[in-house]
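fold-stage: in
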Amino acid sequence: MARGDESGELLSQRRTTLLSVAAAGLLVVLKLGVGLATGSLALISAGIESSGDVIAATLTFFAVRLGGRPADPGHPYGHRRAENLGALGESAILLAGGVIVTVEAVSHLASGRRAPALHWYLFAVIAIAVVVDVSRMTVSRAGARRYNSPALRSNAFHFAGDLAGSLAVLAGLLSVEAGLSQGDSIAALLVAAIIFAFAIRLIAENANVLMDRTPTQARGAAERAIADVGADIELRRLRLRESAGRYFADVVVSVPPGQAVVEGHQAADLIESAVEQVLPGSDVVVHVEPRRRGLDLRDRVLAAALAEPLVKEAHDIMIFEQPGSVSVSLHLKFPADLDLRDAHEIAERVERQIAERPGVADVQTHLEPLERPLRARPPDETADLQAAREIERLVRERTGSAPRKLRLLSTDAGRVLFLTVVVEPGASLTMAHALAGELEDELRRRVDGIADVVVHTEP
């Protein structure tokens, strides 16, 4: 998200919380003033609850402000959990208000105090409270969904509780008017019950976040997204933590040991995208390691060879099946300046590790130096032209058509030939490889000065 977008988001959240403070202050004045004037415990209780809203909305304002700060060395995951702390503070205020209301309501019921005097402005205050509660509940809920803000979500719960409380007060006043003298006190108890219900829900939701409890639904969605990336990717570990509606994912996956670093990095990118798609706004870190389970023998041979840092390449892996056992051979490439004794010790370690696999009778390695870069020389155009004609003739004899591409490169070791030839569309890879090998051998034998031949086949 761009910095400008973040600034606009924070300003919008702060504006929402400031409007909540102003609305809560208005309701406190109306409810407490009219409740004290008429003796309505239900309305006084609603006023006490609304006074808690003023404090709670103020806490929300500062929690949103603190939570909007960017990550720093001391807070690498950012400050957004300040919103969860703010929501817990609001819950504590709700509980305190509920206790006060309950004590007063029980006292009124026990003493049998008379019902409050009913006036038209009592109902006018309730009507105003209902309109204000509906408005700010709608605004806070929309802001919570848009910004994934627990503080605004707790505000929305708060205002929903206020709305329910206002309706309970209205029901109590109507019951008093109908002749039930204790209707006002009973309505106050209903307000207290609503307060306790919303407070407990807020505590449970935000305490789980602060305790790093991963929501089951989010974890399941992330696991399914990773599984859909590909069968070659095995999930080893998934850790999720939530902070103010944003997820931080720590993922460890294993891939076949023969995959190159580039392929492993691509797999990590695919996993990050998959998790971010099902959990928008997530921060995902993926660690890729070679797979150790579910491998066939060829993959295990390759893994054993590449586990040695000085083995730069492992190729020509051959597995010879015999009754009850197999024999394995492979070529290992080392740095050209490596001493033979060191290369031999490494090869023996590789052989021992492969021989430990069940059914492996023996292992043979072939040691090779890693090719050094060759220096190109200026071409001999006359000699190259004659060689190219001879190469084209030989290719026509062997394949029935001219080469698609032909390039000669002069080096200190001799000419290197890059050749692209066409094979029949229905030919298998094995047939094409055999043709390339035959061409390479024939061209080295029949064309002077050819040090190496690289044949590319295509349909």
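fold-stage: in (second)
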Amino acid sequence: MTYKVRHILFFALLMVACLPLWAKTEQETLVGAKGSVDIFERNPVTATANITLLVQDLETGDIIDSYRPKNVAPPASVMKLLPTATALETLGEDYRFSTYIEYSGYIDNGILHGDLYVRGTGDPTLGSQKVGDRAFLNKWVKAVKDAGIRAIRGCVIADLSYFDADAVNPGWIWEDIGNYYAPGIYALSYMDNTMNIILRSGAVGSVAEVQYTVPEVPGVQFENHIRCTSITHDGAFVHGEAYNYTRYLTGSVPSNQGSFGVQGDLPNPGLLLVQHFSDKLEENGITTTAWPTYISEADGVKRTLLYTWLSPTLRDIIIETNIHSNNMYAESVFRTFGARYTLPCTIHNSADFEKDFWYRRGVDTRSTRIVDGCGLAPQDAISAETLVQLLTYMYRSPNKDAFYASLPVSGQTGTLRTLLGGTELDGRVHAKSGTIAATKNFAGYIELPNGKTWVFAVMISFGNGKAKQIQKVIGDYLLDLYQTKGKE
């Protein structure tokens, strides 16, 4: 056998001997160590899904597991981590939104010769069922009385000029716009910007009858196509534009249920607020001479400050935002960032500020696409690596406690109540969830019994199943990873 032939045979045998090693290396590169990420490949719900994930030791930065961590994916409500963290870092947990009661003209002998203005700066809690003082209008009336005003020769005006008139994010889809979870976002919010539309459900095939709304909204009209069917859940949708008082009702509701509530957005919550304020003034003997109205752009009228109303603390607001995944709260906070550049606040400026803010702090947002603050926009995109960098930063921030308190806990609170309950990770995962059709994401922290903490992001989109099925696979993955690597 010649030297050349022996040389070829040697390398051939070497290649055969190394095949298992190469195969193992390729397997770990693509799907992680056996017993962890390969769970997703083995399950038909996630086998063909888009996956990006990263799990790190928070103290050392050692990678526990990863799979395409730099790839971006739609974050859904995990997006709320960005505006809530940004708000804490720029405003502080004790920050309170201000709403200003101002007047034009002058007060003479108890008569205001001018108009009363309510100027908003983005407080999402006015009249909210979630956070705040629901009796705030009584305090506003008292402030007017204390200023010596007994009558108003003018009207009450809602000043919405702090935000631009683009109340509905242009990145949202028609299926969402107008529903309770996708209301318009205004400088003056009221009653969670939501109304409850009470229907009467009849026989199968009939059109559900609109009876009334709570709250009552003057001038609202409905084009109603909601059918009563044999379904057992709420399958109705509300569609409509900001400032437009026509709402389109489609879909279906269960038949023969009597009264049945469907939630939609308020066409102009700021206007409804000053209507209620004006009514409350009238009830207390303070009359006006014109109907309440609103302005969406600053009118340049000289005003005098009468009273400042302060919201609950930002800490309370972001706890509601993240634990209950409140889109309206998230968007209201997000929209205020635009003021860092110019007024009125715009969606574009808010997104630019947020992206640049984190990039300058070492969080790689170059591939991140920010369209809104709550994650409803399908164009939103972020990677697991970016989320882990953000979470690592916040864990070491002076605002850690407030941020940590805003995250739901596995098996116990908020949107994580159904994740890992009754398992070894019950109560150990503090994370934000994100859910849209065929998509489920989680990002947060895992507390280990040995005192260590993992920081993680798992994002799975376009799965072959419902979000709750994807959640089950993610739960299995996290539990398996904990059992194989968290006890070492």
